[in-house]
């Protein structure tokens, strides 16, 4: 994982994996734009229902609005679309919330070569609770479930 640098031309990548970009510290980032990446089709070899696509689009659009941004819609098909979009805005880095293993991670890995060729660094914001919970998520939910009371005590203040 590469952490974002401040004062670098930056674009924000919003996905349905994590719609809490407003929880992240975006201050100090030279934001040039945002993209709402449609990824629901990556999870299934069959067509995805229109309701799922609309829900995903609504979630990422709402995220952009809460962050005070207008997001460009990008479909996670050919990774060069992401590369070309970021390059067109003069971005030196893409910032996205922490991406776990799975279809989006695989797609982002495919995009890495094109990003490297354009000098664009893919960076991730990893919050304290990401760092605390994801190492526990190695064998399904039950290992995580055992740590939930401790995590709530640690991260939720009354």
What does this protein structure show overall?
The protein is of the alpha/beta class and 158 residues long. It has 2 domains: 9-126, Rossmann fold (3-Layer(aba) Sandwich), CATH 3.40.50.620; 128-158, no CATH class. Helix content is 39%, strand content 19%. The chain is built from 5 helices and 5 strands; from the N terminus they run ββαβαβαβαα. The protein has helices at 50-66, 80-88, 103-117, 128-133, 141-155; strands spanning 9-14, 30-38, 71-75, 93-97, 121-125. It has a 5-stranded parallel beta sheet with strand order 3-2-1-4-5, sandwiched between helices. The longest helix is centred in the middle third of the chain and has 17 residues, at 50-66. The protein is globular.
